[in-house]
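Retry 2 of 3 after timeout on previous attempt. Resubmitting structure tokens to design endpoint.
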């Protein structure tokens, strides 16, 4: 498995003291350019208690390995400032749970826009857990706002492994989420009652099924239902229930996936959890990005579209199409390519992408999608023979028969998953060759 190392270097530890929360930053990209310790915001969080609880929830997801729990490294959350809000994001160590806290009401000075890692250490976690009351909390995102520093002024440095599946998960989440529909919206009391009714067993699988203005639990699929495999994976919602104004539940527009998303509306903010189809299945293996990445022009289009992104709160496809001169479908594919480099996310509530710049090497993109790499190798080695809507792909394991129309194949991968985890390498190879034949007729 490909694995890089992420190095964090903070000017000092993040700390909370006397009503002032200073989040130390490490690396990242801003409108003003790459910075070692960027400063993005200095001002008030008008809803201190839910903000502290939400930030703690995001940090808890980064700490947790839901499948086969065991001690390990934690990756620090990232924060993106777009000028009007702060988005804190994290991903579980097992790659199956994605968390984001969107702080929507900022009262203060936006010093720059961009994305950076933030230090959430043990003492800070203890301090966040004690925040209560209605008093506003002063927040500084950047080193100059630190309220407590080490006596010797030493920087805080740490290195953690960054498995390729972890980065791929960010791409898969935003692509899968873009295909979700809103299935139910519950008001505060109904949301609290429903979430507290979830089974306590961490590995329990249930379906949340709309029932009037409420949700009911079912042990089997029902029309409009959203699957929750591993009920314990939404545990970070529970400490936030005392602030909950509403719960929204999202699911795929068809039954091709059992992933889902759970979004709590809090005072001045939203907390979102996206959960993979099974506790043992991280988002990195879902294959949702492959169809878009397989287009020949995706990488070039991504370069064009990427230059037009400006840390906007919401990325509008039509506006990007007009500015780039590309059709909307190619802009969408370009955003998928940018997602594999951690450069865009997806906001379910707004049904729109947003720009961020995670501090990972973009050159890893091809390497992070081994199925696509294998498909391109098959296409380039003349292993694909087309006959109308059918293709025969010659591999070391024999000849695979591919139906281009429904994307089926005679390989073991297709028989095991039947499209639920994206196309196999043989289908991708056949589609790559078929597109070349159409574009360059003989």
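Retry 2 succeeded. Sequence:
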């Amino acid at each position: 498995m490909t694995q890089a190392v992420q190095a964090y270097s903070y000017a000092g530890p993040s700390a909370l003291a006397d009503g002032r929360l200073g989040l130390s930053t490490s690396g990242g990209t801003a409108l003003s350019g790459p910075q070692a310790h960027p400063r993005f915001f200095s001002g008030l969080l008008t809803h201190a208690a839910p903000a502290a609880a939400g930030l703690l929830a995001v940090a808890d997801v980064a700490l947790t390995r839901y499948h086969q729990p065991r001690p390990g490294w934690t990756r620090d959350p990232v924060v993106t400032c777009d000028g009007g809000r702060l988005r804190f994001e994290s991903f579980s160590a097992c790659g199956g749970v994605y968390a984001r806290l969107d702080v929507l009401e900022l009262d203060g000075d936006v010093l720059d826009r961009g994305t950076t890692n933030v230090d959430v250490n043990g003492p800070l976690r203890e301090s966040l857990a004690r925040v209560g009351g209605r008093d506003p909390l002063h927040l500084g995102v950047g080193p100059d706002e630190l309220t407590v520093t080490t006596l010797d002024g030493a920087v805080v440095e740490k290195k953690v492994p960054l498995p390729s599946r972890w980065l791929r998960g960010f791409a898969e989440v935003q692509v899968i989420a873009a295909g979700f529909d809103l299935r139910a919206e519950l008001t505060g009391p109904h949301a609290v009652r429903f979430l507290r009714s979830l089974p306590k067993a961490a590995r329990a699988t249930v379906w949340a099924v709309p029932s009037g203005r409420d949700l009911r639990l079912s042990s089997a699929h029902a029309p409009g239902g959203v699957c929750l495999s591993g009920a314990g994976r939404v545990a970070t919602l529970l400490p936030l229930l005392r602030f909950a104004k509403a719960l929204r539940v999202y699911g795929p527009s068809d039954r091709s996936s059992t992933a889902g998303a759970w979004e709590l509306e809090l005072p001045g903010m939203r907390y979102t959890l996206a959960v993979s189809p099974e506790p043992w299945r991280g988002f990195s293996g879902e294959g949702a990005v492959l169809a878009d990445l397989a287009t020949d022009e995706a990488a070039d289009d991504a370069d064009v579209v990427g230059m037009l992104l400006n840390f906007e709160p919401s990325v509008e496809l039509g506006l990007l199409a007009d500015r780039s001169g590309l059709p909307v479908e190619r802009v969408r594919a370009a955003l998928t390519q940018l997602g594999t480099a951690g450069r865009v996310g997806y906001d379910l509530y707004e049904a729109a992408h947003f720009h961020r710049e995670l501090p990972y090497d973009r050159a890893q993109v091809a390497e992070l999608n081994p199925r696509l790499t294998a498909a391109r190798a098959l296409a380039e080695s003349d292993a694909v023979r087309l006959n109308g809507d059918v293709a025969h792909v010659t591999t070391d394991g024999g000849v695979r028969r591919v139906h281009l129309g429904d994307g089926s194949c005679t390989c073991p991968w297709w028989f095991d998953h039947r499209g639920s985890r994206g196309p196999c390498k043989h289908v991708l190879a056949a589609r790559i060759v078929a597109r070349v034949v159409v574009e360059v007729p003989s």
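Attempt log closed. The radius of gyration is 22 Å.
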